[in-house]
Hints:
By secondary structure, the protein is mostly helical.
Amino acid sequence: MDAKRLSYLVPRIVQGGYSQGELCEFINLVQKISLSYLKYQEVIGKHIRWERRGKSGELEDMAIDCVAGLFMRNENNEFVQLRRYFGPYLDGHSELNDVELLIMLRRLVIKKTKQELSRIFKERDPEGAKIIRNIRVAVKNARDLGIFREMGREYIFVRNAAPAGRSLAHAEAYAETAKKKSGPPALLKETPKGKPVPAPAPVNVMPVVKANELSEEELVYLRKAKPSIPEKTLKNNYLELSTAKDHVSTTIRKMLSVVKTDERFQNFLPTDVVARLIRHTNLEMVRTRLISQIEDISPLDYVRLKEIERAKKRVLQRVRQKIHSQYVASGKVSTEKGEIYFKTLADVLDDITHSKKIESYFRHLRKYIPDLTQRRYREEERTIFEYLGKLTKKWFRELLKDLL
């Protein structure tokens, strides 16, 4: 679509006087804006798509998923969010040119894409999302830690160690100014009846300094001209300092102490690197604990483990019978799909019985259907498969209650 047509097209889309071709034209532009943002996130190092293949078309599907919410309609067949966003300007008879409308549209689409990416990441990697959230809460609550953003990436540093204490004062002043400028919350959600309600305020409102706002002294202190520390070096040095009982803020400080004492490298760390090291450390500790538990297993524990395995087999027999009698026999799912469901649910039970990290239903199912997308999962698989998953867990829980 030619962006020069926005001054003609946006009023027609918002006020309902559009043709089907004009709507498709507008949707294509919105998708391209979202897609360009997703590609930019990949350029700066974010892992956006499930597969690394550049020609899979997954990014295009994800862009459509991210902006689909903008085209929800109410009972009057109006696009609720577009009407709410552009309506005040159009109703006030403001003369907005194509450039102004394109800027407004980009702002809306990118905000919506960010919201949906956050949801997708939580579904894809709930453990990783939890770690990132804990890091941000820890930084927000710690007076000696701060964050600056550069090229779309966040970096953590010890801020009150900067010369003259400017970084701490500057960050707090920046946060206070941001609160005053933020104004009322954006309206980007609807009630079931289509009435707008205020979107919830962000969970973490922390002082974030932009990289170009850092002073010369701070740039010297952060050693921005130096290379970043190799992740392997950071991990090896950090593991010598870490303990199992460290809080997240303590963990961050210990990682930063590694780079602080080594003047060959930058005196700050990317948030995603900190999150990755926390995850690896947690896995190592869990693995060590499980190995020690296996070595110390008692005869009674051994008997109980055998009983649990027998209970799992009984549940899987019921699951197979349920799939074939209710879904395969009635033609709701094919024989091949029924077998995939059965194998996937067996994997879910394996995770539960072996104390593994519990993955999402979508991620489990994707192991057997590699080309499955979030959109296809929601439309074609989720209703039946998640019902079977809940039933499987219920039956297993009931047998364990009787056993234990």
